Amino acid sequence: MKKLHYLLFSATLLAGTAQAQLKVEIAGVGSNQIPVAVAAFADESVAPEQVSAIIRADLERSGLFKVVDAGQAISDSASPDLAAFKARGVQALVVGSVARQPDGRLAVRYKLHDTVGGTQLSQLGGEVQPKYTRLQAHRIADDVYEKLTGTRGIFSTRIAYVKEDRANRNYTLAVADADGENEIVATRGREPIISPAWSPDGSKVAYVSMEDRKPVVYLQDLMTGRRNVISNVKGNNSAPAWAPNGNMLAVALSKDGNTEIYTVGADGTGHRRLTNSASIDTEPQFSADGQSIYFTSDRSGGPQIYKMSVSGGNPTRVTFNGNYNISPRVSSDGKTLAWISQRNGGFSLYAMDLASGQELRLADGATEPSFSPNGKYIMYATKGGGRVSLAVVSVDGRVKQRLTTKAGNIREPSWGPFMK
Predict the structure, then answer these.
(1) How many CB atoms lie within 10 A of CB 190?
(2) Both 241 and 296 in a single domain?
(3) Distance separating alpha carbons of residues 278 and 394, to the nearest angstrom
(4) 38 part of a folded domain
(5) Domain that holds residue 63
(6) CA 405, 204, 336 angle in degrees (round to 5)?
(7) Which of 8, 86, 124, 413 is the most exposed place for a label (fewest CB within 10 A)?
């Protein structure tokens, strides 16, 4: 069993409630869903949560699977009638078991069967503390997703976001499972918090706080609760973005007048200026290989997205459609650029295939995009019903879901990395 790095938060962090803070609503699904039966796990009543129910919810939330009722509990040690499931149109079957060990841990095991070929596709097993039952279920769902789609699953990843209650001047930086469960408060304050950005190893979150009456970039260690200043130079310090190797961040600073792009070490030292223009250069984002930086600049008159070498130099313009293009984000495989474009009077989320330049409008009324670590989904903030909430869309625009909260606004999403 891999070490559960990101769940070992220090007691210095503020604990969230045991209830889900976000509610997931599925609004769209893929065009060719894979029929999968998820059986109740044998003896799963000994666990604090129903493992099979979590797996079903994960697979349904992806929009890529049609989850079918297996009709009965089936253990991973059983020999299920795969032909019978095949006759029902089921292509894959998930079975498993939960057993309490003498030391109190839970042995959670599962198998994935191909009902069409009559073969076993995968199996996983591990012993976990009862409080990590949900994580183990997410890991199983990740394995099912990967074996059936060829792409790594993201159910065991985490997200960061900002909850704001402007009426009472409360701002909270929180982290939670990708499905909104297990929320933990990283920090909170009376002044706005914006631009959270996960470190590549998932142990820290950089963000901007206005608590000193100006934007300052901080780094919150999720393991220890310790907070360090990354950039607090003269003027505004904003828009932190991590290099893929985790050694430095790109930031937007106005210490020399107008806003320019800089890099700074992960320890807050060694500011290095990359752009030098009379325009506003902001919102830096590293390319997947770390060799380039995408950013927003109004050097052409209105805000557009540009790309330059990580060492600086002359930038190349990337966006040409529309007069207002901001908030660039790059998928982990380097194939897709997501950004926000204002066209026809509204803000929309777009995605571009960087090889062909082909654009696709994914969602209207969107801001603040963030890619899932497998590059297949984009989370963003959107306003509806008088509140700001989070939504997720697949890069092909077919799968859509919304994450809502009961009170206040939730915005500034940042999808965490895969955990090693």
Answers:
(1) 10
(2) yes
(3) 37
(4) yes
(5) 25-149
(6) 75
(7) 8
